Amino acid sequence: MTLQIWRKQAYYALWMTVIFVTSLTGQAVAASTLPGPGVSWERQFSNGIKIFEVFETDQGYTLIGTKNKYQTYLARTDLDGNIEWEKLLQLKTSNNSQVIITSADYTEDGGYLLGGTVPGHDSFYYIARTDEAGGVIWEKEEFVRDYVEFNEIRETEDGGAVYSYNNGESLGYIVKLNAVGKREWMNEQWMTRYDPHVSIETIRQTEDGGYLAGVFRSGSYLIWQLNAMGQEVRHNFYGDGIGWFVPLSNGGYAIINYSRLSKQANLSVHYPSGHGNWSKDLGINGTARSIELTAEGSYLIGLSNAVIQCDEQGNIQWLRPVSLLNKALPTKDGGVIYITSYENIVKL
């Protein structure tokens, strides 16, 4: 990095901090809490590599992404971000069509769940489970009429998988597979005359073995609750536009999304009983990218332009301005790791 570039970045970070501090309307945030933890290390990727997932391992971190769009990129680093292992996979369907991976999970046995699609109209989505060396254990493909978009895949407690995909703009599906890739159940969300666009973006398994899904429906955000057999329990609408959630104890969940009324990012907590629910504007105008719980019970929030940590009542503890954030995750040492521009990994 040249001195000129470093100065520009330092000036930008200072300028963004000033803007963010002055924009925290209604928040009593001490200046000393900004901009949060310092950088431990940073790694930049190039040569066509795009990183969209990072997970913490016992020895460091594992990274998942693509290279030159069609190759699946897997890597493992030590605790300081040094690459120790990397592998490229050429995943194809049975008719030899190349697959673009768009979602992935790191499994309990150290392997990977990979999900993606073959681009084009009337095409396939594809899923593979691999071992820790990237060797394919099983794979599955489905032909879908219209365009297909693969959104999310997550390992389940029984060693299976749950995933979501879109069929065009009018249908969204959640599918549960067993440990060897056989379908157990399927459920769907569909458009209405008022909600012509449906997309099931996130899925999380809950304490009771059921599932919560975050759904974009036109300009609204929906939490869809299913039981362990995939049957709907309830659904509720929350706020506007893009949102993300994290499950809480006792069937609750926290949501980060955008309030059109206040034009701010909004953090809210919801329980089935309605007791203990609250909602708080964060005083920041940014698009929601992620939300996770820290070991201490705080909320780690990723916005397009900031990483924020809030306490259990939604009060901002620290805020770090960033640019083009993709997601942020808490780490075991009390720090944070995040992705920007699908090319940079930063550890705080």
From TrEMBL:
Q: Which InterPro entries match?
A: Quino_amine_DH_bsu
In terms of SUPFAM superfamilies, this protein maps to: YVTN repeat-like/Quinoprotein amine dehydrogenase
Q: Which PANTHER family match?
A: ENDOGLUCANASE (PTHR42754), LIPOPROTEIN (PTHR42754:SF1)
Name assigned to this protein: WD40 repeat domain-containing protein
